[in-house]
Amino acid sequence: MTNAAAGETLLAVEEICLRFGGVQALSEVSFDIKRGEIRAIIGPNGAGKTSMLNVINGFYRPNRGVIRFRGQSFTRMRPGFAARNGIARTFQNVALFRGMTTLDNLMTGRTLKMKRGFFWQLLRYGPAMDEEIEHRRAVEEIIDFLEIEAIRRVPVGRLPYGLQKRVELGRALATEPELLLLDEPMTGMNLEEKEDMCRFILEVNAQFGMTIALIEHDMGVVMDLSNRVVVLDYGRKIADDAPAVVKQDPAVIAAYLGVAG
Amino acid sequence: MDLLYLIFVDPFVQMGQAPDLLVQTLWDGLVSGVLYALIALGFVLIYKASGVFNFAQGIMVVFAALTLVGLYAAGIPALPALALTVVIMLALAVAIERLVLRPLLNRPDIVLFMATFGLTYFLIGFGQLLFGGETKQMITRQLHLPQGAIDLHILDGLVTLQKIDIAAAVIASVMVASLAFVFQYTRIGRALRAVADSHRAALSVGISLNQIWVIVWFAAGVVALATGIMWGARSEVSFALEVVALKALPVLILGGFTSIPGAIVGGLIIGLSEKLFELYWGPLIGGGTEAWFAYVVALIVLLFRPHGLFGEVIIERI
Amino acid sequence: MLYREVGQYHASYRTDTAIFPIRQDRVGMLVILAVAFIIVPVFGNSFLLDVVAIPFLIYALATIGLNLLTGYTGLLSLGTGGLMGIGAYTCYKLATWFPGVDIIVWILAGGVTAAAIGALFGVPSLRIKGFYLLVATLAAQFFLQWAFERVPWLYNNNVSGDIEVPTRTLLGLPVTGPNATPATRYEVTLCIVVVLTVLASHLVHSRVGRSWMAVRDMDIAAELIGIPLLPTKLLSFAVSSYISGVAGAMLVFLWYGSAEASVFSIDLSFTILFMTIIGGLGSLLGSFLGAALIHMLPIALRNVLPGIGLDLRPATVEHLNLMIVGALIIFFLVVEPLGLARLWQTIKQKLRVWPFPY
Ligand SMILES: Nc1ncnc2c1ncn2[C@@H]1O[C@H](COP(=O)(O)OP(=O)(O)OP(=O)(O)O)[C@@H](O)[C@H]1O
Ligand SMILES: [Mg+2]
To answer: pLDDT digit string (tens) for A100-143?
Structure first.
């Protein structure tokens, strides 16, 4: 358990509906994320968890509903806006830049923070070089933090899956986000890797005060990490409470066991 | 004002004044549309079953026609030469499957696509090496294809229909109908559709992917041969066709990559519209517009419908 | 033991982010430049300069241009020929209007219109990809070639319909036109190619280049990180087209001496695309290697085959060349998709551990 959810609301979704043809991926889902907390989103396969994250950072456009972020209301978020306002994200099926090295992947995370224009980049001299090095330094700190020094210069396409997930977390951290959305950061990992990943997540939350929304199937992990849990099933919210409470909820148990109702 | 008149009124006045010319142009456009459609058909066949965008389809048309004419010139009578050409197209399909498709299995689409550029150049070089680079006459008469023209006296004027063009339209229709039949009703057809939906699904039905690929590339080769004969009979057999064959690409944008009827409709639209545009609007800007008209139409369509006229919109996932 | 970075430590990020971090690479580069700038023009005859060296450099530059778009940003294009034409015709018009201004200025300016037109045809790239985008670039190619043929103003109403390169001097030395010596044209070509290559390499190692590669590898993730897709793609189109345009102007002014519209046909687009693929997508070094291979293959065939007793007709050599190029494309895509540049990397890796591979 990390710093308790004391902060004010950072982001809230209200009555979000999302449809794909005949599939109702989300129906009237509302919940909020408080500043500084670790918020878990769980639910069976196809419940709409990934879709929810996609709505939050603007990749999907909801059919109805409102997103409130830092007090402002939006009927839809836009990916560029979300990125500029400190929402970063990792993906369920790793979406790294496969042809680029670990270092370059992390450096792309700094794009928004680099201000020197095209002609400076062309010269790669003076202020442009200073800027490049300043950001390189920031990225090296993240590399140290995630313990991936050895694979700095390796094209990420050649890395094992577990490391790719770690690099992807690094890329999100490089943007210095306020809200970090993690889509199943631990799938496909062995126990040791999972423990490392948990440690990173907790540290990011504790040291840098980052707010985290996390999708995870492993209930043990959810229990250990999160302050509050939202449970989705067939696109509906069926529970929203502290992990220990949610675990006892009959509706949640039924959903996971596949019992109708 | 004058310009507006020239663009928006004058062409239609001309159409009204000389309806026979209009009908003649429509007919010519229709016939070249049929040929574009046939090339596009070859694309669609391969794309549907193997997901490969075969840039070399246009060259296969030339290669097939050249082989036929070359074999005849080497002293083989017309019909055996035709049969032999079909066999060579089969050999080509097998070779492509072995040497290009199989080693590139599971690679990104774009890599396979670029490989067909290589195939294009290889076939251009190979065809010319075997049969020489000079232009040749199609053996229309020896293949018992009709020659000559029918003159129709209608609309106070004269409309000339080449018999070979009529034959081309008929053969194209028969070919499309039989392909549709094969796809719909035979075991191979069902297998092909299964592959199009999912490679793994097809495997679980117990069909070898390699066989399927050979079959579709062979089918596309036969379509190419028929196209090459028709095309050659209308003009001549040479690699200059390569550039014309590229027009199948805008046809596919209009018709979609997976639809046989789409290919036909797209081909006819492009054929008709480029002939009409060249005749009535071309002179305003110096003529020769057939070189780019089809592509610009496709570009405009893409601006409004990024997935083509009939393509379905896919919401990307992540 | 010759090629090793052992003992070369980078004490600062500044030296570590240098483009050639290894000393042997830097020395090798200097040697190559010295040979190119001094030895080749002094000892090269006009065959070596005019048939081999100048065209090789110009093709390499055009290949770099396309590589930025296709290799680095992942956008396929068959419009290179048309854009090179834009560069050539722009340079021609400017050189006619302002005969007093240094021709090199106009060669470099030729790329600017190409950049604008390239970016214009790149606008659909936000919404269309892959094969669809290819058709958009084909529209550019065929439309531009048509314009080169049908708009007499572009070629100053010459009866021949050709660009006829006028004589222009630099510091009293003829640089273009019939009086320019191959050695002068070579030096000018080399200077432009070296400068633009250095700038291109700066770009691809910077924020801009990383954004291009990010868009190439996973456009959705790039957008969610804050890389705006359309501006990034348009910038790539513009820079790529600029370089193509300059290469086109050089093709006519520093090599051909005169050119008709058909020079800038789809065949030129294909040639450059093949150089890009064979050299290695996403590699500047590869652009040089690919251009060298494809440009020199037919020259070698013409000169070597008779030497070993095979006396083939020129047409046959041409056909053989097409077959070999086609086969090479497929070969590289199958065996080494990253092209010659990657092969070179592998060789260097072997050298690094030589002579003790364990
Ligand atoms: N782009 C899309 N197009 C069509 N349907 C979609 C799309 N994205 C999601 N869906 C559908 O929406 C529903 C919810 O999917 P989502 O990926 O959000 O589930 P999830 O909770 O993340 O599941 P999992 O645990 O398997 O990751 C599913 O039925 C899915 O098929
Ligand atoms: Mg999911």
So the answer is: 999 999 999 999 988 888 998 888 888 888 899 999 999 999 99
pLDDT attached to residue A5: 47
Question: Contact, A82 vs A169, CB < 8 A?
Answer: no
What helix, strand, coil percent values describe chain B, rounded to 5? Answer: 70, 5, 25
3-state secondary structure at position C140 = helix
Q: Where are the domains of chain B?
A: 19-304
Q: How far does CA C181 lie from the centroid of its chain? A: 23
Separation in Å, CA B296 to CA B30, B250, B251: 19, 9, 11
Provide CB contacts within 8 A for C46, sequence distance 6+.
Answer: C182
Please report which helix (H) or strand (E) contains residue A40, including its range: strand A38-42
Between chains, do C227 and A137 touch, taking CB under 8 Å as contact? Answer: no
Instruction: Give the pLDDT confidence score for residue B22 in this predicted structure.
Output: 84
CA distance C58 to chain A (A): 21
Which CATH number is B19-304 given? 1.10.3470
Interval A219-239 mean pLDDT:
90
Residue C294 CB neighbours (<10 A):
25
What are C195-242's pLDDT values in tens digits?
999 999 999 999 999 999 999 999 889 999 999 999 999 999 999 999
User: Any idea what the Cα angle at residue B278 is, between residues B276 and B284, rounded to 5°?
Assistant: 120
The answer to whether the Cβ–Cβ distance between A20 and B318 falls below 8 Å is no
How are beta strands A179-183 and A211-215 bridged, if at all?
A: parallel
The pLDDT tens digits of the residues spanning C235-250 come to 999 999 999 999 999 9
Alpha carbons C75 and B236: distance in angstroms, whole number: 36
Q: Does B313 touch chain C (CB under 8 A)?
A: no
Find chains touching chain B: ≥3 CB pairs under 8 Å.
Answer: A, C
C-alpha distances out from residue A101 to A136, A196, B7, C98, Å: 13, 22, 56, 48
CB C245 within 8 A of CB C111: yes
Tens of pLDDT, residue by residue over C248-275, are 999 999 999 888 889 999 999 999 999 9
DSSP state of A236: E
Domains defined along chain A, listed by start: 1-86+211-261 (3.40.50.300)
pLDDT tier, B2 (very low <50, low <70, confident <90, very high otherwise): confident
Q: How far is CA B169 from CA B33, B154, B233, C62, C230, in A?
A: 10, 21, 13, 44, 44
The backbone torsions φ and ψ at residue A27, rounded to the nearest 5 degrees and listed phi first, read -130, 120
Per residue in A140-157, pLDDT tens?
999 999 999 999 888 998
Confidence band, pLDDT 50/70/90 cuts, at residue B311: low
The yes-or-no verdict on residue A260 having pLDDT over 50 is: no
ipTM: 0.90
- Please list every residue in chain A whose beta carbon sits closer than 8 Å to the beta carbon of residue C18: none
State phi, psi for A237 to the nearest 5 degrees.
-85, 125
Asked if A180 and A208 touch (Cβ cutoff 8 Å), the reply is no
Q: Residues 6 or more apart from C280 whose CB is under 8 A from it?
A: C71, C286, C287, C289, C290, C338, C339, C340, C341, C342
Domains parsed from chain C with CATH numbers: 19-353 (1.10.3470)
To which H or E segment does residue A42 belong? Answer: strand A38-42
Contacts of B318 in chain A (CB under 8 A): 50, 54, 59, 91-93, 95
**Does B87 contact A at CB distance below 8 Å?**
no
Instruction: Name every residue whose Cβ is closer than 8 Å to that of residue B257 and which is 6 or more positions away in sequence.
Output: B43, B44, B47, B48, B53, B308, B311, C131
pTM of the model: 0.90
Count the alpha carbons within 13 Å of C257 in the hemisphere toward its beta carbon: 10
- The tokens for C342 are 């990657």
Cα–Cα nearest to C247, from C291, C293, C210: C291
**Residue B132 to residue B71: CA distance in whole angstroms:** 12
